[in-house]
Amino acid sequence: IIDTATQAVTVTLPSSPTLGDEVRIIDGAGNAGTNRITVTSSDNINGSSSDLIIDANGAGFGLVYYNSTRGWILIDK
Fold first, then answer.
1. CA geometry: angle at 33 spanning 72 and 70, to 5°?
2. What CA–CA distance (Å, rounded) separates 53 from 12?
3. Taking Cα atoms as reference points, which of 67, 26, 25 lies closest to residue 45?
4. Is the pLDDT of residue 76 over 90?
5. What is the 3-class SS of the chain, one letter each residue?
6. Is the pLDDT of residue 10 over 90?
7. What is the CA radius of gyration of the chain?
8. Which of 30, 23, 44 shows the shortest CA–CA distance to 2?
9. Using one digit for the tens of pLDDT, what is the confidence trace for 16-34?
10. Would you say the C-alpha torsion 19, 46, 23, 52 has a positive or negative sign?
């Protein structure tokens, strides 16, 4: 659960993940529209090397690791 009440937050996903590893992220304060959440990883996220930016108040979702090409895939959108 991420506290976006007073500032933007960067979340770094685990390094060296294995198939099926999961992470869930929830905007606990409901302020990501103002204080965005940046999800970063040394692996791809949805097949891209770009960070994942969350800027919707109250967002909640999961990521599961698949492989080095796809990397972390969004689930529970």
1. 10
2. 12
3. 67
4. no
5. CECCCCCCEEEECCCCCCCCCEEEEEECCCCCCCCCEEEECCCCECCECCCEEECCCCCEEEEEECCCCCCEEEECC
6. yes
7. 12
8. 30
9. 999 999 999 999 999 999 9
10. positive
